[in-house]
């Protein structure tokens, strides 16, 4: 089975044994096993092939180096017991000469020091001899998945250049491209913008993007959270006050509106603004001047106003809780941010972006497993991007290894997506197609799993494993016709 750039499958359901076609072979993952022991080379070859990796083998250092010169290798498995490698020296040399190659080492049982030294020198994994086949396969599988994901991300980044989105915003879906076009257009003018969208969709980021792409990018961007304004203080906060205007006003203070003069005033959650403040704000926008509390004169202000709300302001207007004249003044250029469930194709990119950002150094040591990515994509995200960001942070905090699994995700994401809405046709993944094929077969056979497996052309065990992954079977469920349990050792 192959790890291709476009798709990677890992299960016999979709393709039994891929034959690399010319020109396509560079999209496969290649492993080089270097060992003087034929049995070791064969075992690694068998297990690696099972997890979809293509294998080359070399019995000594000089042949290994020759091969490395001729062909790109993704994963190098070095048997440290082979004399020509001089132990960990070869690992160090490879790290220097081929830093792009992931290295795994094979050590003899009990040689923990050698394994530790190799890991310290930059090997990603160690396997000890005598081999547990399952352990070897699991480790190769993990490395291969990580490599495939890395490669996918790299390809994605190369395709997108340094801007997989717009300004601070990540996402390249058609819906977001439309948003970016509107931001760019809005940024060029000074017309008021009203950003509409559910909670967590990125309204504040849009507001900042408008400011920082416009002619006023060097002037202040002043956010005002209209929900956070204590109603008795709203006026003085927004408009400022003069000394002695009220008890405690020991000094004159500029309000937020004046502070934003020359730049952008961002009225966040403007739908929460109390009625009497709406009237006063309207006056500021119309007259372009503020009068601080207690002042007898006004100060002129030059404002670019961007407002945001997760409410349906039009309806608030109809209900009489939001002033129609203010609504018209704010809603000159509306920008509607789609909820995350309507731009699911951006989820993998965003999830990886958050991983890298949370890792701090711009390069995350952890990646999501394919299953986890599928789960992220199939979930509906009522809390939108903010919820996704939190889920990634949680997975990163809880994970035990470099690969983040479904089990690392918040519990509400761990339930399978069986009952959820189908994805758009163009967003269907191989895994989703497979899942649908399985459930269709089960419906056809009225739940007879053995018959369904036959219909699908796969083994019962594979079907059971898949169903377990989907959460359709308990973790301990066994095929009805599984192999007899091994008899106890004599
Ligand atoms: N396209 C995006 N790319 C990267 N990060 C994003 C994107 N959209 C939103 N975020 C992140 O998601 C979080 C929520 O975004 P933001 O605060 O802008 O949303 P909001 O619509 O203002 O939410 P709320 O209604 O809860 O105030 C922030 O941490 C933000 O950085
Ligand atoms: Mg907000």
Number of domains: 4
Give a count of the beta strands, DSSP E runs of length 2 or more.
18
| Fraction in helix | 40-55%
Q: How far apart are the first and last residues' alpha carbons, in Å?
A: 39 Å
From the coordinates shown, what is the CATH architecture of the largest domain? Answer: 3-Layer(aba) Sandwich
Order of strands across the main sheet = 2-1-3-4-5
CATH superfamily of the largest domain: P-loop containing nucleotide triphosphate hydrolases
Q: Calculate Rg over CA atoms.
A: 30 Å
> What structural class should be given to the helix and strand makeup?
alpha/beta
What's a concise summary of this model?
With about 500 residues, the protein is of the alpha/beta class.
Give a verbal description of the structure.
The chain folds into 4 domains: 136 residues, Response regulator (Rossmann fold, 3-Layer(aba) Sandwich), CATH 3.40.50; 155 residues, Rossmann fold, CATH 3.40.50; 68 residues, Helicase, Ruva Protein, domain 3, CATH 1.10.8.60; 41 residues, Homeodomain-like (Arc Repressor Mutant, subunit A), CATH 1.10.10.60. Helix 1 packs across helix 5, helix 16 packs across helix 17 and helix 17 packs across helix 18. Helix content is 42%, strand content 14%. The protein is built from 18 helices and 18 strands. The N terminus and C terminus are likely disordered. The strands form 6 sheets. The protein has a 5-stranded parallel sheet, sandwiched between helices. It has a 5-stranded parallel sheet with strand order 9-12-15-8-16. It has a two-stranded antiparallel ribbon with strand order 6-7. The longest helix is centred in the first third of the chain and has 28 residues. By secondary structure, it is of the alpha/beta class. Adenosine-5'-triphosphate binds next to strand 7, helix 7 and helix 15.
